[in-house]
Amino acid sequence: xxxRAAPASSPAAAAGARARRASLLRRFVRNRAAAGGAFILLLxxxxxxxxxxxxxxxxxxxxxxxxxAPNAAHPFGTDDLGRDxxxxxxxxxxxxxxxxxxxxxxxxxxGVLIGxxxxxxxxxxxxxxxxxxxxFLVIPTFLLALVLVAILRPGIWNVIIAIGLLGWPSTxxxxxxxxxxLREREFVAAARAVGMGTARTLFREVLPNAMPPVIVNxxxxxAAAILTEAGLSFLGLGDPNLxxxxxxxxxxxxxxxxxxxxxxxxxxxxxxxxxxxNLVGDGVNDALNPRLRQxxx
Length: 297
Prior knowledge:
73% of the residues lie in helices and 0% in strands.
C-alpha cells in the first residue's frame, strides 16, 4: 500500500516548504564565503540596474580629457577618447550579466531536456543522445563560439545564442546521472502504479528531485558565459552597438603602460563577478547537499 503525501496546498505542506526554505537559507548564510559572494553579486546587480543614475555620463560620451587618471570627476579615469570608464563599467555590467543569465538559462533548458530524456528513456535513444553530448564536449567551446558568432554576425543576441547552444553538455550529463538514480525509486514506481503517464512522471516526480545539482551547475554556467562573452568581445565579436567589459579591455590594449586604469577596472569587474558567482554556487551546493542536511538540522 502506497502512502501518499499531503496535498501541496495543505497548511502542513506549506509550513513544511517554508521550513525547508528557511533551513536552506540558514545553511547558506553560515557559509561566510558564499554570503560574501552573494553580497558582492547583489552590489554588482544593483550597480547595473542603477547604471544610468550612478554613471557620470552616457558610456559613449566623450566628456573628459583623454587618458585622464582616476580623479574626483572620473573615479576610474578616462580612456583614449575621453570616455568615462566608471560609466563604461556600470553599463558594461548590464551586458555581461544579461548575456551570462540568458546564455546559462538556455544551456540549462537544453541540457535538462536532453539529459532527462536520455536517462529516463534509456536504450538506443540514450546512446544516441549521449554520443551527441560527448561530441560537443570534445570540441573546444570557445573556438566553436567564435565560428558561430562570425557566421551569425556579431550582436548580443547572437552571442547569447552561440554560448547557450554550446554550454548544455555538462548539464545533460549531470541530469542524466540524476535521472538514472531516481527512475527506479519507490515514489516513481508508485506514480506509475496509479497510472501516471511517462511524461507526467518525468516532469512531476523525477525532474524536481534532480534539480538541486542543476541549479548549482547553472550558477557556475553564468560565470562561464560571462567569461566567454568577454573573450568574444575582446576579439571584436561582441555587439558593436553596446559597451561591455570585454570591449573595454580590447580598447585598452594599446595603452597598458601609459593608462593602467583602462584595463584594470573592467578586468576587476570581470574577476569579482566570476568569483562571486562561483562562491554562490559553492554555497548553494553545500546548502543543498543531503549529507550536510543530515548533519545540520
